[in-house]
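TICKET #2291
ISSUE: user wants both folds in one file
ATTACHMENT 1:
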Amino acid sequence: MRTTHLSHRPSGVSATRAGRSLRGLVLACAAASAVLTGCSMEEASCGGGEYPVMTIGDTGSACVPNGDEPPKGYTRYPEGKVPEHVGDEWDTYWQTHTVDERGKVVEVPAGG
């Protein structure tokens, strides 16, 4: 008569558990790396060496290299109202507001 050890598990269960452990380890390392390097998990509005600009009279935006002027049809965001990350307070605000040709902040008409 053959006796099996009670703690024996089929190899499929071990492989699944190992896969979960590996994924957990990778996620933990990525989170620790972001914290230790000062990286934010938020997506920046522009990359390093760039600043955001907005379209005049519309809700579009773009990124311009530091030191360059905004291209025709674009302007800088008003001081203190510059979006820094996707979904932050100012990014959300500028989805419904814009700057007109005279530099005045105006609400964008619905559907426009």
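ATTACHMENT 2:
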Amino acid sequence: MEKLFDLDEFDSYKEDNRREVKSAKNGLPNSIWETYSAFSNGYGGVIILGVIENKDGTWFTSGLDADSCQKLIKQFWNDINNRQKVSINLLRDDDVEVYKKEDDQIIVIHVPMARREEKPVYINNNLFHGTYRRNHDGDYHCTRLQVKTMLRDQAEKTMDMEVLDDVPLEDLNYETIQGYRNRHQVLNAGHPFERLNNDEYLRSIGAAAISKEDHQLHPTAAGMLMFGNEYNIVRHFPDYFLDYREVLDPSIRWTDRLQSSSGEWSGNICDFYFRVYNKIIKDVKVPFSMKGGDRIDDTPVHKALREALANCLINADYYGTRGVVIKKDQNQIIFENPGYIRTGKEQMRKGGESDPRNKTLMKMFNLVNIGERSGSGVPNIFNTWEDQGWKEPVIEERFDPDRTILTLEFVDKTNKEKAAKKSGEEKTAKKSGEEKTAKKKITNKTKEKMIKIKEYLSENKEAKTKDIAEYIGLKHSRTREILSQMDSVESIGTNTNRKYRLKDSQK
């Protein structure tokens, strides 16, 4: 797991989707288990006990001593190993660490991302009401649909391998099948599957299988999705929907649109892929390339777009809502599919680990030279965009409902970086203004404490938090908060050796 906590960076941290602080001054908080579940079902994170969050998002310690710390740790390990409290313990001994910050102690619990077969991680022995996920800086209950998705994804046998016992092979679209077979033959001349009849061919590629019910050949879910007609597909996948939207002229709502439910074509995945691929490459501007005197029309950009489109279709959760949506405008293409990323966003970007949601669909695409089995497809897309000098692709994962979004922009990276820098400068200026406004709202009582602190530092030159706190009659945590608001005071040293003094202009 990446390093999510460093004591030296304590003063710069704020709560986010990977970090959560809890006071724990009155014992182990019950909410710790909601956060544990949320981090486990997401990307992992750190739970930090003995810390309180200020209204402005900054942190200060709550005053845990060594004895309280040990009691909390003992209770934590007892609870996490109690199956009535938590469905699974994902932690090792070294995942719980204790740090000392000045006179206080804090406990840092590193929660890893659960593997697919371990999800959902739930609490209080309640699968549907005790499963959580992280959203920004808060934990939220997963819906029944999200829990069911995680349960489906536990199995090694993916959902597209299911045999549709009550569906005859005749329900498949044989025009689509023939088109697929022709492509397979052209791209892989002499392949052993060439001589098979249609039924044998469909069984060999995973589009059909022998049913345990009647021992006859029936379509698999993958066969129905790839080669079925839309009106038959939705009987098995009620929320199945494929949508391509093109807006090249802002004055027109759609310059082109293709929907699986239109009734004007089969509406299956195979036909959708080839129709949409021809549309998304039509206006893509790529460098002119020659090899051996011949123009190369199939560039790395074309390959990357094929990979992005196939990846979107292969990893879609066809039981999920809102369907597959491909959106193209003048400067970008966005690929959206229902379903979270099974390997996690970081692993998807890194590559090297392939875990498709629909393994049989992947096999069918691979047979016609589309898609990567090694998990290198997405990294190759990033590499291609970098070689073109375009803005880095963006992978986004949304929850409730679960969706994966890949955005590919055909925009020069340099121009984007300049725009981002300008935007960052504007945000910094705005934040500075807000901080100045916030400082104007300091109460009279706090101002009195600030005056006493200045008097104390004028006499003593340098002092630790505990000495200043004792002098002004406040707790250590509140004293540190006031010190952070004083422009006339600066800190020297770090952690246990930190002291405060007046700045040169104030002496």
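RESOLUTION: both attachments delivered.
EXTRA DETAIL ON ATTACHMENT 2: The chain has 16 helices and 21 strands.
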